[in-house]
Amino acid sequence: MPRFFAPFLLVVVLLVAAGCGGDEGSGSGSGSSGGGGDRPSLTVSAATSLKTAFTAYGEGFDAAEARFSFAGSDELAAQIQQGVKPDVFASANTKLPDALYADGLVDKPVVFAANRLVLAVPKDSAIAGLDDLTAKDVKLAIGSESVPIGAYTRQVLAKLPGDQSAQILARVRSNEPDVGGIVGKLTQGAADAGFVYVTDVEATQGELKAIDLPDDVQPQVAYGVAVVKGAKHPQQAQAFIDGLLGGAGRDELRKAGFEPPPGQ
Amino acid sequence: MRRRLFAIGLALALGVAVLFLTLPVVAIFVDVGPARLLAGLDDPSARDALRLSLQCTAIALAVIVVVGTPAAYLLATREFRGKATVTTLIELPLVLPPAVAGIGLLAALGPKGLLGGAGPDLVLTTAGVVVALVFVSAPFHMRQAQAAFAAVDRSWMDASRTLGASEARTFARIAIPAAMPGLVAGMALAWGRALGEFGATLMFAGSFRGVTQTAPLAIYDRFATDFPGALALAAVLVAVSAALLAAVKLVSGPAGARAAP
Q: CB-CB: which of A75, A139, A172 is closest to B224?
């Protein structure tokens, strides 16, 4: 038995040591030298739909080593409410960063990108539009009410004529905590269709296909970003956001299919 | 001097361990307070989640006991080639991360999986939740059951057979009663693991209120919008799990002493 546990213990000790070392390193980096030799690590909490664009942007980001935490925007905002302090918070809507700003938890947010909602289906699906969703055996996976994608989806459905909204909601089999869950259910064939951002479909590289929604039901999807109050590296956080507005970050966003923020 | 330092070190380690392991549990109860805790449970979606959790874990446990107990008996009482390998394979889910379990279930039983669409539709259904729970928690019972059967005095079973009782009768009348404390402990551990299942359920069965959203999924769902509500549900799970653990101690404690001599 002890022989069995020894390696585990070693791993735990190493992990703890590594964790502590890392913390000290970044702390001293920002305190004394002010970013001289080793790069500080910048923690970015971002909506799952930003994964492809932000990961690519982070690789070329020079001011700091960007570390990402991708999840549903609502979960990330709730973490900040509970006292978690990343350096940057990027959300798939403007509501959550605005609410955190009102609570004094983040600096004034800016809108840095826009996106479009689409109906996503597996590439060989026979579903061609919203009208096909009410068929009896269709299984839908959508975002849960609290995550932005789920809120947008319900906005879309609310604008549909008659009782189509209720009929489509009756086909929902799963309320997923983020877009990753929806995309996963679709690529695995667990669900037949779901509402996601057009950028999520592009990120699957052909696994899924996007069906455009009618313009009159399309919600305005704007992404807000802010420096978190009490961020360890506010300068680098601001540099990261600047790059999203006009730099490498913006380029990666366009490449991933994001649109410029409304009014630009 | 050295010896005292060592003793102090041990005490310190225990203190740190106890503090660290109990603090989150204490915080759950301190943070909500009884009034808000009860109010949080008043929510119909919370009750749906708890009801679904109880139903699914009960069914999963029944499956585990009915299939896992005889299988563990075979492993404990027979010798055959590759037995060690079989035992290890059965125990593997114990150490698998839930996300691995979820993706494995999809790869095996999903619409595009190995058995693709052969059986009934499991993904995004209550049956799928039960499948995920059985997968992650069965080894807890089987391991315990195997150890319990192995500890039963062989002379009792030999005597039973010598007196003309069949294999099946020996299993039912001698082995099971003698191993009962261990079996109950295994059931409680499996039940506790099933109650807490999150990752595999979300990946394989999804999350839909009343159908696949078990209590842990409801906690995650509420985390963003209703932190007190999430804490209230969490408190219920803590209470149930603590009761399970206490039951295990109660049953296996004196029994362990009884089996020893």
A: A75
* Domain match, A121 and A213 both: yes
* pTM, full prediction: 0.79
Tens digit of each residue's pLDDT (9 = 90 or more) over A23-78: 333 333 333 334 445 789 999 999 999 999 999 999 999 999 999 999 999 999 99
Q: How many Cβ pairs within 8 Å bridge chains A and B?
A: 71
Last residue in a domain, options A217, A233, A251: A217
The answer to whether residues A63 and A148 belong to one domain is no
| Tens-digit pLDDT profile for residues A207-237 | 999 999 999 999 999 999 999 999 999 999 9
Does residue B224 belong to the interface with chain A, where contact is any CB pair within 8 Å? yes
- Give the range of the structural domain holding residue A233, as residue numbers without chain letter: 40-114+222-264
Rounded Cα distance between B109 and B102, Å, is 10
Question: Do A78 and B111 make contact, defined as CB atoms within 8 angstroms?
Answer: no
What is the dihedral angle through the alpha carbons of A95, A101, A104, A107, rounded to the nearest 10 degrees? 150
Total structural domains within chain A: 2
What CATH number was assigned to the domain covering residues B36-259? 1.10.3720.10
Residue A16 covered by a domain: no
Give the span between the Cα atoms of B209 and B200, in whole angstroms.
17
Give residue-wise pLDDT tens across range B141-187: 999 999 999 999 888 888 888 888 888 899 999 999 999 999 999 99
Across the interface, whether the CB atoms of A177 and B221 are under 8 A apart is answered: yes
**Residue in A79, A144, A147 to test binding to B, most B beta-carbons within 10 Å:** A144
Report the side by side order of strands in the sheet with A65-71: A65-71, A41-47, A88-91, A221-227, A110-115
In sequence order, what are the residues at sequence separation of 6 or more whose Cβ sits closer than 8 angstroms to the Cβ of residue A74?
Answer: A96, A146, A147, A148, B224, B225
Give the CATH number of the domain where residue A246 resides. Answer: 3.40.190.10
What band does B254 get if pLDDT is binned at 50, 70 and 90? low
Compute the average pLDDT of residues B234-261.
72
- Nearest-by-Cβ selection for A191 from B124, B212, B221: B124
**Chain B interface includes A173 (CB < 8 A):** yes
Residue extents of the structural domains in chain B: 36-259
pLDDT at A264: 66
Strand A221-227 versus strand A88-91 pairing type: antiparallel
For residue A159, the SS3 value is: coil
**Complex ipTM, two decimals?**
0.77
A21: in domain: no
Among B206, B211, B223, select the one facing A185 at the smallest CB separation.
B206
